[in-house]
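Thread title: Can someone regenerate the structure for this chain?

I was given the following input by a collaborator and told the matching structure tokens would be attached. They weren't. Posting the sequence so someone can regenerate them.
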Amino acid sequence: VKQATITQVDTPTGAWPFINSRIRTGHSRLVAWFETLPPGLRDYGETLFLGYTRRDFYDDNVGIQKMGLVHLFSISGFQVAGVYVLWRKFGRWIGITRERSLLIVQVLLVVLLLFAGGVQSLVRAVLLALTQAWRELGWLRLSAVDAWGVALLGGLLLEPGVLHNLGGQLSYLLTFGLLWLTGKPGWWQCIFLSVLILPVLLWHTYAWHPISILANLVAMPVFTWLVIPVLLVGIGAAWCGLTPIMSCCNALINGIQFGIAQMDRVPGELVFGQPPLLLSGVALVGTVSWLLRRRRRTIGLVLLVIYGVMFLLPRLATGGFVAFADVGQGDATIVRLAPRQVMLVDVGGKMNLPQPPWATPQKRDFQAQQLVQFLRGKGITRVQQLVLTHKDIDHIGNLPHFLQQIPVDNIYVPLGMMQTEAYQELVAPHCKGASVQEVQAGMRLNRWTLVKHPFKSGAGDNEDSVAVLVETGPKRLMLTGDLDQAGERNLLDDPMLGRVPILKFGHHGSKTSTASEFVQRLQPNVGVVSAGVKNRFGHPNQETLVTAYQNNMQVFSTAESGMLQYCWSGKRDRWQAEITSPIQLPGRP
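Best answer:
Regenerated them for you:
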């Protein structure tokens, strides 16, 4: 926007909308002021005191998620408890009656909830505090467990989706566990609560690090007696213009950030994959039963068996899958052929266009992160083969970020590509000891995968794309990168090509690929298009869809259906679409 004029201002009518508007305006102004603080005070202060989490917070504060410290960095129970306890003490000190003090604290809690924008983690804490005040006033005659139930029902009424996200689930689960741990030592509470939330963490994050228990044991007292006081002093010093004190406090916070980041590098993380929902539920119920002291030894053994099954299940599962990842206008295909045999064909990528000066630089490659999370969700921590079909950015651009997170044994590129500038810039500096090899037709990458193209050395362009024929369970799959129609016709000279039931259309469904003769020879039943939503190239092209219709194919597109998965076990197979249904083909109802 170069120039604008405000023609009308929305003025709240009525006392309550006006008060709410003033509170939220004050919150936004405080956020703007906190943005001027040094990074350490800014990040921790905004999240702990304002309930505001910057977009780059977890990128700038490595280790918080892996160490299971997320619950400490949300405006939730401890802020509410602080307001409740401090006001009650202050009220007694200035001589306010008990009843009046409890009425005032309820107002303060509602103001805190409005101030923080009604964040879900705060709803639970405020409702629990309100029920506690009502119990002290004699308005409610409930046990602590019943009060927790009332807070849960109230939270669901105010925010029906509160239990559909990790924060809401942890918030209620942790407070429920604390109800049964009253009087227990702090170290015991921390260990048990870590075990209690483990099924939920595995469902959402797919992994667990044993050091997270130690991290929480250390972090709780450190936050209570060091981080919070240092933040208060540092923010107060910044407000008063005492720069030396502010700098010292920021240095202390930076030291804590550094320590958490170092813990993130400790090896030993266990990637379980996403466990079956039934097993997660049984583990959660079993942990609660153990908490209630019913046959602890038996339940403990059962829990160990359940977690063992969770860990081994993805590693011993029979069958496999092919996942056509939704990476926008790009290509990335994941093929799990056996428990220890995972192959990727391309990793997607986006062209880095020049950004205006005001634009915030993107620190995380979200497409690469998506691929990594999908692999971890399947219990996959290593890739045996990575095929880079050619040098285009939309096929290999995510490679540097991907290789930072997942080890790869072997990387394959088309014959001649290692001499290109794209290879020297995007591939060679990031291989981290992986074996890189140029491939050509006739080479076998593993017992299931045969290279069908290229036939000669090239420059890694579309016409030099690697094409592979993969034995995926009961059906065969052909992947051709961006190979053009001329290259497809060259494949027809192979008398052993045979029928291929699943064809991934070349070049995102462009009319430059998917020659009619090629499709007629392969006789595929299903065609897959990897393309971006409303992409500027118009992929898949109408000519390609007409070819598919004429050959009685069913076509799926990541632009329409999101990630597509073809799964098999023995001779049984199935398709799974993330969003919708097959593409509407010309002339087909």
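The first strand starts at residue 207 and ends at 208.
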